């Protein structure tokens, strides 16, 4: 008799999901799926509201990465105003965005995944959590708490609040940076760097224990997508999209992110609230792509800061051939925290960073605006249209986690097929099914959305009015 | 569970329809989490791997509103097995942002996103209206804020652990 395994809920991830595995009569894995079980409807209930509310409202999509939504939403609103915001405002937005990368990556690595990596995939499930790490390796737990806290404190110093700050606004930011706050931030960054380097050293040393996970955690060829700047360096705030294949081939070197609708298409599945985007020119199979920390390291030619560059080069020299394994998202996440600490320091030392000119004021001058940035989990797109009074007519959001949906599903199937050989199921096997998802660090409260200005349903009816075909664009 | 941890107060944290910002704010107590771990035992939470709500929990923090059939079943079960239930954050307390869909109804939302192809197997069905927690089960402590700050969450927890009723009037307000 065939058998189903359900993991419900998937724990130590940021969102509501379950995993199902279908076994055949001999106990072999037939298929496996990752189901997102929450849908919220931001793109509908924001209709008719003033565009100026969007950054604060859209931030409520996610309490882990509210700053990402603030930034992408405010950029879309800048476009509605048809203005170029002051250079210092751009730099300040970059800093708060990087602080968010730091705190969110620290959460993913230390709070959610270190329990698997340090205590073991097969460790006692009642201890396999941050409190278990605290009991057995207090120094590691303290490092994680401190690193996340530094990211959050920088957000609070800039935005006045750790979660859902209202400081990033259409036109810039609503308050300049003071010298005192700058000093406070600069004082914390060396410690953040020390913690990150310590974690990197430990992680690199521990990698040899995870050969099976490296081999099976969504380890297959695919495309990778992320923003890069004009020098093809790591970029979180602006730039263009670049797509490379896992063998290093550049598939698209310079895509205008504002044209995303021309190259991203997506599929709806009956069993998940999360849609499955793919790179349109190559179709559903060949066009599967991944975004987020690992993708960003692979689409760039360098990070652009000395220590992160050294780590990136070492990673590629050591594991370049196997870099298609999503297990390396953890590695990439640590390198990005290092980058964030270096880059924030550079930005805070910029001679203009204390400039009082941080906000441009204007009325809406364009009826359509798109904002794109890199969130901790990948490329984030906010796209609004408004009426003449500045009220939202339509909103479309493409959320980082959504891009990874096809790869996450295939990764769950790969792990299931690798570890489940017969109907004898252990806790460690099930935990690995969750751990491959944790490697992607999905943020599911974010991830459900509508694509396109309005999705279009095309129905083909025959002469009698009976439906013969239908498709969605 | 060791003999020592048996004496600890058991705490659950639950995430219904919200943004997880309240859970993040809970983590924002930072190093105080280490002291807290000496006196409480987190027995059910998105942060730990236990998939089944325990038989008896002393104190449960609930983030988020009640939006799907799963949320509804979950909160009823949690109430039955919890001594003190705390509505944590504006979504749990008032419905807040998730309830902005209420004037439209869940069908309109699903149709907008998926047209005629709304997912219908395995995923839980949405309720026609998003509800605050106290509209479904009785709530013992209300902790407003979007999110309530880490200090407020810490104060509330430590007051309750000390057997006192937290007086939140000067500490937090809606949206703060």
Fold and architecture overview:
The complex is a heterodimer of chains A (473) and B (176). In chain A, the strands form six sheets. Chain A has a four-stranded mixed sheet. Chain A has a three-stranded antiparallel sheet with strand order 1-2-3, covered by helices on one side. Chain A has a three-stranded antiparallel sheet with strand order 12-13-14. By secondary structure, chain A is of the alpha+beta class. Mean pLDDT of chain A is 91; it is low at 450-460 and 469-473. Chain A has a single domain, classed as Cytochrome-c3 Hydrogenase, chain B, CATH 1.10.645. Chain A has helices at residues 42-45, 54-59, 66-81, 87-119, 130-136, 138-159, 179-206, 211-216, 260-263, 283-286, 293-299, 306-319, 329-348, 400-403, 405-419, 427-440; strands spanning 3-7, 17-23, 29-36, 168-169, 172-173, 223-228, 240-245, 250-255, 264-267, 276-279, 289-290, 368-375, 378-386, 392-398, 457-461, 467-472. With 176 residues, chain B is of the alpha/beta class. Chain B has a single domain (3-100, 127-161), classed as Rossmann fold (3-Layer(aba) Sandwich), CATH 3.40.50.700. Chain B is globular and about 50 Å long. Chain B has seven helices and seven strands. In chain B, the strands form two sheets. Chain B has a five-stranded parallel sheet with strand order 2-1-3-5-7, with helices on both faces. Chains A and B meet through strand 3, helix 1, helix 4, helix 5 and helix 6 of A and helix 2, helix 3 and helix 6 of B.
Fraction of residues of chain B in helices?
A: 25-40%
Low-confidence stretches of chain B: none
The CATH H-level homologous superfamily of chain B: NADH:ubiquinone oxidoreductase-like, 20kDa subunit
How much strand of chain A?
15-25%
CATH architecture heading of chain B: 3-Layer(aba) Sandwich
Please report the total strand number of chain B as a whole number.
7
- Based on secondary structure, the structural category of chain A is alpha+beta
CATH topology of chain B: Rossmann fold
- CATH class categorisation of chain B: Alpha Beta
H/E topology pattern of chain B: HEHHEEEHEHHEEH
Rg of chain B, rounded, reads 17 Å
């Amino acid at each position: 008799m065939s058998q189903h395994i359900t993991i419900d809920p998937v724990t130590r991830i940021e969102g509501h999901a379950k995993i199902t595995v279908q076994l055949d009569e001999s106990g072999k894995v037939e298929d496996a799926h990752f189901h997102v079980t929450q849908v919220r409807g931001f793109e509908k209930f924001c209709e008719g509201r003033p565009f100026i509310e969007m950054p604060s409202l859209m931030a409520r999509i996610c309490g882990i990465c509210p700053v990402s939504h603030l930034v992408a939403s405010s950029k879309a609103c800048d476009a509605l105003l048809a203005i170029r915001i002051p250079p210092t405002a751009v730099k300040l937005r970059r800093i708060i965005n990087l602080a968010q990368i730091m705190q969110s990556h620290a959460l993913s690595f230390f709070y959610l995944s270190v329990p698997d990596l340090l205590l073991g995939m097969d460790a006692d499930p009642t201890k396999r959590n941050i409190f278990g790490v605290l009991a057995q390796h207090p120094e590691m737990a303290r490092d994680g708490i401190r690193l996340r806290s530094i990211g959050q404190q920088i957000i609070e110093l800039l935005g006045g609040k750790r979660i859902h700050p209202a400081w990033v606004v259409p036109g810039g930011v609503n308050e300049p940076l003071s010298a005192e706050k700058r000093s406070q931030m600069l004082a914390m960054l060396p410690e953040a760097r020390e913690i990150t380097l310590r974690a990197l050293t430990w992680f690199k040393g521990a990698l040899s224990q995870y050969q099976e996970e490296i081999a099976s955690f969504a380890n297959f060829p695919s495309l990778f997508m992320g923003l890069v700047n004009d020098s093809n360096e790591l970029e979180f705030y602006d730039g263009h999209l670049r797509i490379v294949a896992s063998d290093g081939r550049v598939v698209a070197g310079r895509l205008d992110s504002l044209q995303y609708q021309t190259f991203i298409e997506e599929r709806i599945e009956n069993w998940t609230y999360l849609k499955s985007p793919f790179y349109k020119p190559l179709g559903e199979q060949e066009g599967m792509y991944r975004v987020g920390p690992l993708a960003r390291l692979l689409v760039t030619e360098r990070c652009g800061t000395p220590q992160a560059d050294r780590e990136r080069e070492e990673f590629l020299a050591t594991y370049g051939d196997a870099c298609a394994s999503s297990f390396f998202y953890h590695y990439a996440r640590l390198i990005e925290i290092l980058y964030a600490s270096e880059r924030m320091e550079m930005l805070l030392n910029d001679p203009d960073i204390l400039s009082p000119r941080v906000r441009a004021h204007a009325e809406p001058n364009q009826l359509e605006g798109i904002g794109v940035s890199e969130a901790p989990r990948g490329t984030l797109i906010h796209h609004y249209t408004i009426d003449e009074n500045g009220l939202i007519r339509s909103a479309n959001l493409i959320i980082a986690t959504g891009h990874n949906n096809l790869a996450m599903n295939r990764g769950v199937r790969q792990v299931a097929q690798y570890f489940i050989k017969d109907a004898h199921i252990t806790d460690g096997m099930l935990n690995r099914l969750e751990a491959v998802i944790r490697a992607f660090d999905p943020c599911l409260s974010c991830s459900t959305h509508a694509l396109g200005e309005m999705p279009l349903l095309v129905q083909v009816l025959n002469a009698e009015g009976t439906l013969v075909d239908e498709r969605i664009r | 569970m060791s003999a020592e941890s048996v004496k600890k107060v058991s705490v659950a944290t639950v995430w219904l329809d919200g943004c997880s910002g309240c859970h993040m704010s809970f983590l924002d107590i930072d190093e105080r989490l280490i002291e807290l771990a000496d006196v409480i035992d987190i027995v059910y939470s998105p942060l730990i791997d236990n998939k089944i709500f325990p038989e008896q929990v002393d104190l449960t923090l609930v983030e988020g509103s009640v939006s799907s059939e799963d949320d509804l079943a979950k909160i009823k079960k949690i109430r039955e097995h919890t001594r003190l239930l705390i509505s944590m954050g504006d979504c749990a307390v008032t419905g807040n942002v998730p309830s902005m869909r209420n004037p439209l109804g869940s069908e309109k939302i699903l149709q907008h996103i998926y047209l005629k192809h709304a997912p219908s197997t395995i995923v839980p069905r949405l309720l026609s209206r998003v509800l605050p927690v106290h509209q479904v089960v009785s709530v013992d402590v209300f902790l407003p804020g979007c999110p309530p700050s880490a200090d407020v969450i810490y104060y509330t927890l430590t007051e309750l652990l000390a057997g006192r009723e937290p007086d939140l009037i000067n500490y937090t307000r809606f949206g703060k």
